[in-house]
Amino acid sequence: MKKFLLIVLSLMLVFMFSCSGKNNSADDGIDVTGYERMTLEKQSGKDYKILQLTDIQIIDVKQLPYEGRLTAGDIAKWPDRDTCAFNLIRELVSAESPDFIVLTGDNVYGQFDGDGSNFKALVDLMDSFDIPWSFVNGNHDGETVVNYGGVDYECGKGMKWQAEYVEQNTENCLYELGAETMGSGNFTVNLTENGKIAYTFVMMDTHGCDMAAGMNAEQIDWYESEIRKASKVRYGKGDLSAGVVPSFMFFHHPMRQHYLAMLKYSNTDRGFVSADGKLLNNGDYGANMESVAYFQSNALWERIQELNSTKGVFVGHNHCNNTSIMYEGVRLTFGNKTGTYDSWYQQGGTRITIKDGTGDFTVEPIYSSGSKYGNR
User: Fold this and answer.
1) Total-model pTM
2) pLDDT band of 294, cuts 50, 70, 90
3) Domains, the chain, with CATH or none
4) Does residue 208 surpass a pLDDT of 50?
5) Where are the beta strands (DSSP E) in the chain?
6) Distance (Å, rounded) from C-alpha 24 to C-alpha 7?
């Protein structure tokens, strides 16, 4: 599905809405006049499968920001992109045949991508699968300067350059830079079925590169606005009294609630949910092998609870965590790290399946052959 077709689908959705007789004005405070969003179509009669990949962290050992950044052993361990992650990505995509692929940040390691070739190679690989895909940014993607010993060294190209490359060189990538005041890469993608919005995928920037990790008030208000607009297009009312469109959120850093969720299974944020890595009867699974590096998210969480739209939040950042836990009605999931650079506990991906007919969903870990629970 090519990008221009996705936009046509969204325009068709607006046309059908305007012709249905429903009021698209702001009488309820939610104006959906001219509402256009990138859109994917779910085939009726089939489940819809999303593959989450996270913390790929492609590096190029020939692009060290300063001498000594990697040891000789490191250089031997990660000699090329295929070894770092590309082979695993190919394996996962081939085995899963997903409908949509989402990368949840730290896709490249900016310190090792001064000429942008790692980002280009990753984008070209993802687009070559001819499957719709998207990404959010992590704290390493936008690195342009690294400080060592009190000296600043130039490195990566930055997220604006990355966004321009994606816009000009892909056919299957769904990405928008969004309002600069909110960061880089805040946008939504609607999943429709029979011309109606079935799910909204909310993609958000949690910063962390040039400022502390987290979300600002504008982002939280924007999230609410997107849910209300999608729900008005689907059900006719932005006050959510007629119905609310279900949603998933994808971003890089975990929330404080990811920390709190683990306390259901341990007296700290480390420990096992399932010692064998498999799903429990309630759908929870995984292990946290490092402390949760969360951002203070109470304002966001209050909005999530108030809107009652978001059913799952999918993050990365903590390479050694891969838990998925239902917490206060929302499934909070650390994706399996996809790639060998830096520390990791499990490798692979995460399978998110929206069930046909009901809209219910399941989340399952996919363990690579290199993981303790390898199944490939």
Assistant:
1) 0.94
2) very high
3) 3-367 (3.60.21.10)
4) yes
5) 38-41, 48-53, 100-104, 133-136, 145-148, 151-154, 173-174, 187-193, 196-203, 247-250, 271-272, 287-288, 310-315, 324-327, 330-334, 348-354, 361-367
6) 19
